[in-house]
Design a protein that fits this description.
mainly alpha
């Protein structure tokens, strides 16, 4: 609140309107992006590959419902904790336990598979949420990350696919089209 208080105490009404208008615009822009990005990931990267015959209209409907779901989750998280520092920490923790492990394994581990990534996301996130609710002594982030790693390894070993080779092939084809 240091900067807003400084603006209120040391500037005129015109500059105050500009400052708080820009601040509100930045907040709304960030909020909309934070809801649209996961909804797009859900639609394009999770749902679309599983259902090859989806029409654009159906995919758009799925993404719209995903935006509503993300909004409800965001409101629930915001209402459950008034401390902005904790909210930022929780959003970072959720990214670590549900996104970092599958991304890193997908890029650097040749045996990584789609099933491993999906299990890593779901199980890592679920364990993190359960440990947050249970208020464990050890931070929930640790449990979620370990669960995400184990799920990635087991899921990739249970069902093998050619995800890594497909990625390398697409990468090579894209570089050829750029040349």
């Amino acid at each position: 609140m240091v900067i807003p208080m400084m603006v209120l105490q040391h500037t005129g009404i015109g500059l105050q309107i500009l400052f708080f208008g820009a601040l509100l615009s930045a907040i709304l822009s960030t909020t909309s992006g934070a809801m649209l990005a996961p909804a797009t990931v859900i639609g394009e990267n999770l749902i679309k590959p599983q259902f090859k015959n989806l029409t654009d209209k159906q995919l758009l409907r799925i993404m719209r419902w995903s935006v509503a779901f993300i909004a409800v989750c965001s409101i629930w998280m915001g209402m459950s904790n008034a401390n902005i520092y904790d909210l930022v920490g929780q959003s970072s923790a959720l990214s670590l336990v549900s996104l970092f492990i599958p991304l890193t394994a997908g890029l650097y581990w040749k045996k990584a598979t789609r099933l491993g990534a999906l299990l890593s996301i779901v199980i890592g996130g679920s364990v993190w949420v359960a440990c947050e609710w249970a208020a464990t002594e050890i931070p929930a982030l640790i449990y979620g990350t370990i669960a995400s790693i184990i799920a990635m390894i087991l899921g990739s070993l249970i069902r093998k696919d050619n995800s890594y080779q497909d990625f390398q092939t697409r990468l090579a084809n894209q570089s050829k089209t750029v040349e």
